[in-house]
């Protein structure tokens, strides 16, 4: 088979498997390297993929290389990096431009061969913000393949953060577009509904899956309005501003469901939409959310990158200073700098208890009025501080100190009558601390309480609890509680993905 024919067949196979919604891996599989996902999409073994790379390498004129399955295995495990010419061969196989491969570096450019390409797009135009929002909305649907790793990290993340700051410094001129009519009343009600959901984020009897469903539907609607409606520059800015708020809310609620990839996509979309609107406040809010995702689930160095970028918009960062300090505390502790971590935590506590900070001046009319501005969430701020303090102690192996900080979350406390949708997810960390302290009965009870608060645990969060109890699964009390947790086959479908966003 010629190189062109081989590439055509492989590209077709990748497109069919990765872009039509069929799951390549189940949501409960361990995290996969992006190369493993691409190789699996092609239906190739390690040895088969090595042979294709070797054949492509030779056909492109780079000379012969050994087709050893061990090399592919080491690439996927992160123990080795392919040579530059091997990466060029792989980029050719997967249809990725050489310039983008060089710009993003290994392994980030591999995501350009999947639907996550919009996350890494170098263009930061308003049209690119719409495409990123559309990608986040479509890939959140339960029928899509799930990944549990973060796609934009390291140098790729640094480039995205710098682009966001550049756009804020030199905002693009928004233009109008022709399409379907957009009544003012429809936009006003969108703002009302969004603010109502933001209030529910703090304390609500409504469960996290239901709130997430509603928030994602609202974000999808805003994205479709941006893609298909008639509006002028002022309305475009208003829509992007709402899109940034909706995406940030979706990112936070996705963490409640333990849906890592969805949280990252929505957070990055929030930053892009905020930049398109020219709102430093919304860019910082999105970056604060992104920093939390990295601080808890990713690389703490990436959390600090996001925090530093947010602080480079100082007046906009004032309203989020306590959030940034919280996530910095956890990131510093994970990097074995506990003293710096607890200093950051004390700053966060002082910021929450102290006077309201000086905030960024409103951008035209975007941030004026009660329905245009996100509500204050003191209970959520207190929960975040408690969570970060407990996780910092747990990171240092001091489960007893962690449980002392988690005391308000384990029974009674401020969340009993009006629980936060985050509470079931927080109880997963409480159970972790209880197991580390040898309190198996307490961990089982925390799992039961998480189920009671959630009504029914989200599937990915239920799998987190299962992994937590894996060493104890032969205990009758553990088996009993695990039997009550849902599995992926029981998942309830979410809202269907909307029509493709129109590029501009």
What does this molecule look like?
With 504 residues, the chain is an all-alpha fold. The chain has helices at residues 3-18, 34-42, 46-59, 69-77, 84-94, 98-104, 126-139, 154-169, 184-202, 208-228, 233-256, 260-277, 280-297, 300-311, 314-317, 321-334, 338-353, 378-395, 399-405, 423-436, 440-454, 459-468, 476-482. The model is unreliable at 1-30, 360-364 and 490-504 (pLDDT under 50).
Which helices and strands occur, and which strands form pairs?
Elements: H1 3-18, H2 34-42, H3 46-59, H4 69-77, H5 84-94, H6 98-104, H7 126-139, H8 154-169, H9 184-202, H10 208-228, H11 233-256, H12 260-277, H13 280-297, H14 300-311, H15 314-317, H16 321-334, H17 338-353, H18 378-395, H19 399-405, H20 423-436, H21 440-454, H22 459-468, H23 476-482
Helix pairs in contact: 3-4, 3-5, 7-10, 7-12, 8-12, 8-14, 9-10, 9-11, 10-11, 11-12, 11-13, 12-13, 13-14, 13-16, 14-16, 16-17, 16-18, 17-18, 18-19, 18-20, 19-20, 20-21, 20-22
